[in-house]
Amino acid sequence: MKLSVKVRIKDKSTFGTLSEMAEEMSQAERSLYRRMLVDPEYAEYKPEFSKLHGITSRQFNALRMSVEGRLEARKASIVREHDNVAA
Fold it and tell me: What's the predicted TM-score (pTM) here?
């Protein structure tokens, strides 16, 4: 099950912290993307990766699901492009 939440933050003093957190998670996601391109068997490096990036197991799983979705979309795009060229 996936859940998206949208909120309005009234206390603008938290924006700096939230921006920093978003940047850290973005960097971790890009790093995981590169890693999963080479080695999709994430169970072997999950603890090391989580410790390196200072994230919890749940955060790793959220990043992993996002990366898997991106990789699947990339594969589908390549197949569509190939089909268009072949046609």
Answer: 0.79
Over residues 21-78, the pLDDT tens digits come to 999 999 999 999 999 999 999 999 999 999 999 999 999 999 999 999 999 999 999 9
Q: Number of folded domains in the chain?
A: 1
- Would you list the DSSP string of the chain? -----------GGGHHHHHHHHHHHHHHHHHHHHHHHH---GGGTHHHHHHHHT--HHHHHHHHHHHHHHHHHHHHHHHHHHHHHH-
Rounded to 5°, angle at Cα 7 from 72 and 71: 5
Report yes or no on 7 lying in a domain: no
Residue whose entry in the numeric block shows the structure tokens 């993307």: 33
- Separation between Cα atoms, residue 76 and residue 22, nearest integer Å: 28
Q: Is 5 part of a structural domain of the chain?
A: no
